[in-house]
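Deliverable D5.2: sample structural annotation.
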Amino acid sequence: MRRSPALVALLVLAGCGLLPPAPAEVTELAPDLHLEAPDGPIVVLGRGQLAELSWEAVAYRSRNGDVCTYQVVDELGNGGGCGPVPADGAVFGPIGATPVANGWVIVDAVLSGDVRRVRIETDGEPFEADVVSLTAIGVEVTGFAIALADGREPTALVALDAGGSVLERFELLPLQPRPGAPGAVPTPASP
């Protein structure tokens, strides 16, 4: 079977991480699950299963222009926050790390448009997550969400570019108290 040069080039670019991130899926939330009223579409940062619980993390723009992230576990609100998009030259915008049932933690962030993957450092092995484009909400940034299993404590986020080089590493404060209650997670927009 002979492949066209265009298809081969596309496969090579995809394998090297040079293609832009996939656009985030547009979704809806129940009106009572918003931190601030959305001004436009709501997009999915990530979703999955936490043992018997389903989870979804979303992002949207508020009427004041901030980007809000919100985690929903079993169709109930769980946590989130709002903040400005990353300023010119900045890599990180709002960051969230929310403990949920059984020691699981949902980690999400809004990142500059240059970020293609995120390494989540933990108190155990690190994890990597792909980012999605948030252009559907009217900003040229990316975002991600991942659920860490069974007591994994996120310690830092490492933003990677298309070539896998580190753009920036951001250390997180410990989640306290643990498990089950939200703790302080610094964000670049925090004082």
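Annotation notes: Residues 1-18, 178-191 have pLDDT under 50 and may be disordered. The radius of gyration is 17 Å.
The annotation will be released with the project's public dataset once the embargo ends.
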